[in-house]
Specification:
Distance between the termini: 31 Å
Radius of gyration: 29 Å
Oligomer: single chain
Number of helices: 18
Structural class: alpha/beta
CATH superfamily of the largest domain: P-loop containing nucleotide triphosphate hydrolases
Largest sheet: 5 strands, parallel
CATH topology of the largest domain: Rossmann fold
């Protein structure tokens, strides 16, 4: 799904998001502009680049309307480093819990993983050749030159080395054709050097702990351990190891830091949980405001130390989201409000939205169940009227109990198909064709419709 950022216009970004998320045009439009602005900044005159800062976005909407999914799909589309954090997990400096800088470290980890994966893909062919040689060596060890000769059926004298070479080439062909994938071989694989360290005494911050572990891990000698694996398993284990040897980790770190600084997206969920009406009192409200004040320099732009190097957050895009049922966006401290200039209200999902969610997205819930049934050799299909009925029931339950948005569909569809999922493949065998129609939906969900005490269905 990922594409080059310079080939994505705001309209194309929205079209891509439409393939996965129903509705929320306003939110999609704003995130599309924010993403395109990253490319515009990087292509602006040198003297202006440092002046152009991203317009951070605050998404307001109840649970299950697509806030997280929009941000996640956006990052995947742009092949950008992305991390999602819960604001409620952070605590003010001096309290036990995660410090706000950890979100930036998570972003850099994500960036390193992205760059590393891309670099490994570049050297994959060379790594596969090295892996092939290691597997061949385990199967038929190479011989040094010897003076001994043997006669074959044609009375042509051959040295042991030539016979060995022929045998290896024969097995090489078998390897390439995948004929001996299940054969077990013994290979040496690198074992983890990083020890698990526990600290006795006073608290130690996350960054210091990582540095200590890395330092001690680096001091220990590299250990190899023998493992007996099938050739298919060995190829997978060795490929990662050999690819790592072929890439320059210093280059990976530099590129990852650069990518995180210019393309990184941090999604701060549940930001409404750290907002509270300012009464000048005490108790938990003080800590909530403290988290906001700790968050402020990160969002404003500051330098953060990570184990891969120093990262500047001036041009990282922050997308915050919250339901704001109890508190209001204006309950955030004014300085933090000012750092999220774009506010987008996401619409509550309607009955027709539920119907479209079941039918249109690439990863629609109905398509997921069809894929799972197909794995059993069973064909599953849904009538249009059945989808309309499921959408109607999910909407009614949301209206009368608790509005959890599109997540309600998972509860309803799971209840509808539970018996079928249990009966396959013991009672319903392969090659069966199951059609879910309106009558079946009404029959299976009759209790759900009649009984409005739906405590078991509240997530």
């Amino acid at each position: 799904m990922s594409q080059n950022l310079d080939s994505l216009t705001p309209k194309q970004i929205v079209e891509e998001l439409d393939k996965h998320i129903i509705g929320q045009k306003d939110a999609k439009k704003n995130v599309a502009i924010a993403l395109r602005n990253r490319w515009r900044r990087m292509n602006a005159p040198e003297e202006m680049r440092s002046e152009i800062t991203p317009n951070n976005i605050l998404m307001i909407g109840s649970t299950g309307v697509g806030k997280t999914e929009i941000a996640r799909r956006l990052a995947k589309l742009a092949d950008a480093p992305f991390t999602k954090v819960e604001a409620s997990k952070f605590t003010e400096i001096g309290y036990v819990g995660r410090d706000v800088e950890s979100m930036v470290r998570d972003l850099v980890e994500s960036s390193v993983h992205l760059v590393q994966s891309a670099k490994k893909e570049e050297v994959k062919e060379r790594a596969l050749q090295a892996v092939e040689e290691i597997i061949l060596e385990a199967l038929i060890p190479a011989m040094g030159k010897t003076g001994k000769k043997k006669k074959n059926a044609d009375a042509t004298p051959e040295t042991d080395e030539e016979l060995n070479h022929k045998t290896r080439e024969l097995f090489r062909e078998k390897l390439r054709r995948g004929e001996i994938e299940n054969k077990k071989i013994e290979i040496d694989v690198a074992s983890s050097n990083s020890p698990s360290i526990g600290m006795v005494g006073g608290p130690i911050d996350e960054m210091s702990m990582m540095n200590i572990q890395e330092m001690i891990g680096g001091m220990l000698p590299k250990r190899q351990k023998k493992r007996k694996l099938t050739i298919a398993e060995a190829r997978k284990a060795l490929l990662d190891e050999e690819s790592s040897k072929l890439i320059d980790m210093d280059e990976v770190k530099e590129e990852a830091i650069r990518k995180a600084e210019n393309l990184g997206i941090i999604f701060i969920d549940e930001i409404d949980k750290i907002a509270s009406p300012r009464s000048g009192g005490s108790g938990p409200d003080v800590s909530r405001e403290g988290v906001q004040r700790d968050l402020l320099p990160i969002v404003e732009g500051s330098t953060v130390n990570t184990k891969y190097g120093v990262i500047n957050t001036d041009h990282v895009l922050f997308i915050a989201a919250g339901a704001f049922h109890v508190s209001k966006p204006s309950d955030l401290i004014p300085e933090l409000q000012g750092r999220f200039p774009i506010r987008v209200e996401l619409q509550t999902l309607k009955e027709e939205d539920f119907y479209r969610i079941l039918k249109e997205p690439r990863g629609a819930l109905t398509k997921q169940y069809q894929a799972m049934m197909a794995a059993e050799g069973v064909e599953l299909s849904f009538d249009d009227e059945a989808l309309l009925e499921i959408a109607k029931i999910a909407f009614e339950v949301n209206a009368e109990v608790e509005n959890i948005g599109a997540r309600r569909l998972q509860t309803v569809v799971s209840l509808l198909l539970n018996d079928l999922m249990f009966d396959v493949p013991d009672i319903i065998g392969a090659n069966a064709h199951i059609i879910v129609n309106k009558e079946m939906v009404k029959d299976k969900l009759a209790g759900l419709v009649k009984n409005r005490d739906l405590s078991q269905f509240i997530l």
